[in-house]
Fold:
Amino acid sequence: MNLHEYQSKELFELYNLPVSKRGLITKLSDIDEAIEKIDFSNGCVAKVQAHTGGRGKVGGVQLCKTKEEIEKFVNNWLGKKIVTNQTDDQGLPVNIISIDELASIEAELYMSLIVDRADKCVSMIVSRAGGMNIEEVAETNPEKILKVKFQNGHKIDKDQLLKVCSKLEFNSEQSKQFHEIVEGCKKLFLEKDLSLLEINPLVITSEGDLHCLDAKINVDENALYRQEDILSMRDSSQEDEREYQAKKHDLSYVSLDGNIGCMVNGAGLAMGTMDTIKLYNGEPANFLDVGGTATKERVGEALKLILSDQNVKGILVNIFGGIVRCDLIAQGIIGAINEIEVNVPIVVRLQGNMSNEGKELLNSSGLNVIGEDSLMEASQKIVELVK
Ligand code: GDP
Ligand code: MN
Structure:
């Protein structure tokens, strides 16, 4: 789950990480109150709050010297959508704008903590060459990016940290500040079950101090059950509507760009099904695992979810009945089709537990559902039908 920058900065404050003061705006009349929360004597930086980076490049981060400039920014953005190189072409809705006290910048650095799957630990990534073009640096000058592994999951070797400080060209005061920032980030990362914490840019101000200008946090979804305070920060307006609905029904769903909706039980089988569709030159519209304990109701919800995607031109259902009974799956499909209008072909492959009963139910339902016995034939069929 992603957080907004302002929410991440609220967490940063709890861990004594240096961030700018800020005021929040959700409507035009909030501006005065927001300005009062900061020292506005040098102006401020107005920042669109949306679950994306790359805002600076599309005018979503802007220096404002006067109240009128803030008003203009708010009028430009509030209630609109922001499209960046990190969003899809629909973009994300802008419902909140933050105005941050202006910081002066000598240098922009990059810092992040990640769950490092390759090395099975938490790693820190830092670079002197931070800011809006960090992706470019990673491609053209990867030697400018340093990675430090946390030992035993949480310890950074003192000598290693000193070396990093010297590579980042910190003086002794900055090195001290950096130590504290690393400690604070690490504590926050571990205590709140983060999978990503990114500060880009981490700046050196004209006073020579380190300061976090941006803050991005991603929290491990699997840990949300024990992070109630964080769960309350969820902003579903920033999430894919179908993925959000899927989570509510405990379905693992990921939107994709193709036109063949997939409903499968088991993540491995779902991947295999997508591969087979691709093999016959089709394009899956989604990944969907209805789980090992798929019930009639969940199958119905899953089918509705798939059909709510306008791009879907056909559906492939691939169920292997182990624990799950294929006749119940068939009932779920029939129930959902009777409830909602279905204008696209559905190919169903049922195998395993009670599959004959399931096929019988589908055949006698009078619905336009095509049964196939093998995954190859079923995939080929649905690809043909959507063409
Ligand atoms: P992003 O583009 O979505 O990652 O948004 P950022 O928060 O990183 O802001 C983009 C850029 O705006 C930064 O790289 C800075 O150059 C600039 N910026 C942001 N806040 C300030 C500030 O307080 N003072 C100054 N001078 N520039 C800022
Ligand atoms: Mn940034």
Summary: The chain has a mean pLDDT of 94. Residues 20, 45, 47, 53-56, 61, 100, 102-103, 105, 108, 131-132, 200-201, 213-214 surround guanosine-5'-diphosphate (ligand 1) (CB under 6 Å).
